[in-house]
Amino acid sequence: MNVEKGHLFIGLKDGEAKEPLVCDSADFTTHGVIVGMTGSGKTGLGITILEEALLDGIPALIIDPKGDMGNLLLNFPDFAPSDFLPWVDDAEAKRQGVSPGELAADTASSWKEGLAKSGITPERMSELRDGTEFTIYTPGSGAGVGLNVLGSMKVPKLDWETQGELIQDEIEAFVSSLLSLADIDADPVSSPEHILLSTIISTFWREGRDLDLATLVGQVPRPPFRKLGVFDVDTFFPEKERMALAMKLNGLLASPSFAAWLEGTPLDVGEMLTGGGDKVTAAIVYLTHLSDAERLFVVTLLLSKVVSWFRTQPGTSDLRALIYMDEVFGFVPPTAEPPSKKPILTILKQARAHGVGMILSTQNPVDLDYKAMSNAGTWMVGRLQTENDKKRILEGLASATGAVDVGAYDRLISDLEKRQFVLSTTTDSEPTLFGTRWAMSYLAGPLTRDQVSALMKGRSSPQPETEDAPSAPPPVAKEAMTDIAAPAESVEATGSPGHEEVPVMPMVAAGVATVYLDPAATWAGEVGADPAGKRLTAAIAATVNLTYDDTKAGVNHQEAFEAVVFPLGPVLGSDSVKEVDHDPRDFRPDPPEGAAYVLPEPKIDTKSFWTGVDTDLTNHLVGARKMTVFKNDALKLYSRPGESRDDFAARAMAAGESAVDDSIAKLREKHAVRLERAQAALAKAENRVADLEATAGSKQTDELVSGAGDIIGVLFGGRSRSNPLGQAARRRSAASQARARAENAKDTLTEEQAELEGLKADLEDEVADLEDEFAAKVDAIEEVEISLEKTDVRVAELKLVWIPTA
C-alpha cells in the first residue's frame, strides 16, 4: 500500500474491513509507550514503527538491551529460503521434525504471505533496505561496530552563560554512570566522590579543554583547584580517600577487558543519527552482552549526549529523530534514582520542542515512573500479566490524557489477544483497537554476538586520528599513582623511559615539589630539551650545601652545589649528574598544553626512591668533589678558598720579608755587646783617622768608616725592615771591596779597626744567610686537596623537573 509522507502504517484496525491504522509521525514528538507481557507482540510492534519511521526519512537511535532490534537488518524482499536459512532456529526445526532448509522455506513462504495480507510489497521492503544505513554498535565488544563511550570527553558545543545547567546535567549523568560502573553509590548533591569528579570535569570544560577518562582519573589525587565549597580540598575529601577513589577507577582502566570500551567510533549522537549520507540512519546500540551496571552506564552516557545534541537543534513540530528503548526495566523506575532516569525524563519533558520523540517499551507498567507516563502522548497497550499491571496502566492513561473512560479501557485491555493493542493518543478521545501489521524484518529473536558480527562484517570500527575525534587514550597506569591506601599494590613501571606514556602526571611522593623546565633556561640544551616538545621526561633538580673543613689548614668553607640528575634510573649514576647553575626562573609551575608524560623507570611515588637519591648524591659528591688549596709548611701558611697560586705566592713573599725583619731584630740583640765595643773602637779609630787626615789626608779611612757605619745602621739605626733581599749580592761585592781596601790600609789601621772590620763581615754574612734561607722558604709552595666527609654534605632540596623532549 502507499503511505503518504509524514504518516506511519503500524497495523490494521479491528473490524471486518481491516482498515489500515496510519499514525501521524508528528504524534511521536509527544513520545510513546508500548506495554505488553512476553508474547504480546510488542517487539514486533516496535520494529514496525521503526520500519515506518525509517521509510519516512526519520533517523532512529535504538537502545537494544535484549538483542531483538538487530532483526531490522533481516529484510529479504526476494523471500529466498537461502536468505532465511542462517537465521532460523535449528532447535525449532528439530522440534517440528523438519530440516533447517525445510523450515527456512516454510518461513520464507509464511513471511511472504503475511506481508501480502498487510499490503506490504517487495518494492517497499527494498526501499527500506536500500535506503537505510543500519549500524549495530557494540560498546565494550568488537562483535559489531565498537563505540568509544569513554575515550574522549569533548567540551560540549554549548554556551556556559545560557546553557550552563544543561552542561552540568551532562556532567552529572557521566559521573553518576561512571561511579555506578565502579560500584560506588554516590549522590550528586552530597557525595564527595561525585562532587569532586564533577568539579574536575567542569573546571576543564569551562577552560575549553577536552579530557578523557585517563586524564580525569589522574586528576583525582591532586585536583586542579584548592577548594570545594567553603573548605579546602583536603578537608572536604582527604587525600588518602581521593587516592582510594582514583585507584578504584583506575582498576577499570587497567583491566584488559576494559580496552574495548576505549575503541571504536567516538560517541557522537549527531553523527550516529545523521551520518548516513544520502541514506537515513538506524543506529542500534546492542547491550545484550553487558552486565546491568554496564548497561546503565552506556544508556546514561548515550542519553545525556542525546540531550546535549537536541538542545543544539532548532525547534520544529515535525519528528526529526526517534529514540527507541526496547525494554526500559530498571532505567526509569518509579522510586529509585538510577543515573539514567534524569536524561530520560529530560528527553520526555523537553525534546518535543526540538522534534525528537522517544518510545519506551516495557513488559511491566510498574517499571515506569509516573512522570515518564504522564509525558507520553501515545500509548499502545497489549496483553498484561496481572490486574495490578492493568490498574497501573489505567492510572497512567488518566494522568497522561486527562479524564478517560476507565471502564471502556478496562474491557478492551482485558480482552486483548496476541498482537492486539489498544491505542490511546492525546489527539483522539476514543481508544482504538488494532492488530499489528506483518513486520518487513524477519523476527528471528535475540541475536548472538556471532550473528551481530556476521551482519556487521566489513564494518570495522574506525580509529580516528583527527583533532575532533582523537584516538583512544592509554589508561592511567598504576605507576602513575602513589598507592597511599594500599602500598603493597604498587606496581613497578615496565621498561625504561619512553616505553609508556600517560596523559596525566605520574604521582610523586608527598613533600616533593614538581616543576616544569622552561626551555629558555641557559642549560636546557645540556639535557636535550626541545622548546616545542610535548613529551615530558622526568629529571631531578638538586641543591646541595657543601662544607670543606680542615682544622690544620684553617679552612671552614661552605658553598652551594647545584645540578640536574638526568636521565633517571633506579640508582643514581655519576654520569647523570650534570652540574648546572639553576634558579627559580628556569622553571614553570604548569605543563605545556597537550603534554604526555613518559613513565619514569624508578618509582618516584615512593619516599624510599627519594631517600636513595639523597644517599647516592651524597656518596657521589664525597667521592668526586674536592677543594684544592696551597700551603707553605716553612712559613706555616695556607691559601684562602678561591685564592690563586700567584696571589698566594705574593702573600708568602710578604710573610718571608716580615720574617727576615724579625730575624735581624734577634741578631741585633745577639751582637749587642760586641757592637758596643765596636762602637768604642770606632770612636777611637775616628780620632785616629782625624789625626791621619790632618797629617796625611788618608781617604781609605773614610771608606772604612763609611762601611762600618752601614753595618751599625742596619743593626742599631732603628730600621724596621731589612734591605730588599735582592741587594745581598751587591753588599757582598761592596764588602769585598771594603776588605780589599782594608787589606791595603792594614798598615795604617789599629787592632781595634781590624776587629771592627771582622765584625762587619760576620754581620753581613749572617744577614745574607738569613735572606737566602727565607728566599728558599718563600718558594716552597705545595698543593693540598681537602676532601668531603658524608657529614660535610647536606642535600638541601630535591625537586622533580619535567623536561620537554622531542
Write a compact overview of the structure shown:
With 806 residues, the chain is α/β, with parallel strands linked by helices.
Architecture overview:
The protein is rod-shaped. It has 23 helices and 26 strands. The relative contact order is 0.11. Helices cover 40% and strands 17% of the residues. Helix 6 crosses helix 7, helix 21 crosses helix 23 (751-779) and helix 22 runs antiparallel to helix 23 (751-779). The chain is of the alpha/beta class. The protein has an 11-stranded mixed sheet with strand order 2-1-15-14-13-3-12-11-4-10-5.
Task: Present the secondary structure layout.
Blueprint: E1 7-13, E2 20-24, E3 32-35, H1 42-55, E4 60-64, H2 81-84, H3 90-96, H4 100-117, H5 122-130, E5 132-137, E6 147-148, H6 160-181, H7 192-206, H8 213-219, E7 227-228, E8 231-232, H9 233-236, H10 239-254, E9 265-266, H11 269-274, E10 280-286, H12 292-311, E11 321-326, H13 341-350, E12 356-362, H14 370-374, E13 378-381, H15 387-401, H16 406-414, E14 420-425, E15 432-436, H17 449-455, E16 501-502, E17 514-517, E18 535-550, E19 555-565, E20 577-579, E21 587-588, E22 596-598, H18 607-624, E23 626-632, E24 637-638, H19 645-670, H20 672-695, H21 700-716, H22 728-744, H23 751-779, E25 782-787, E26 793-805
Helix pairs in contact: 6-7, 6-12, 8-10, 12-13, 19-23, 20-21, 20-23, 21-22, 21-23, 22-23
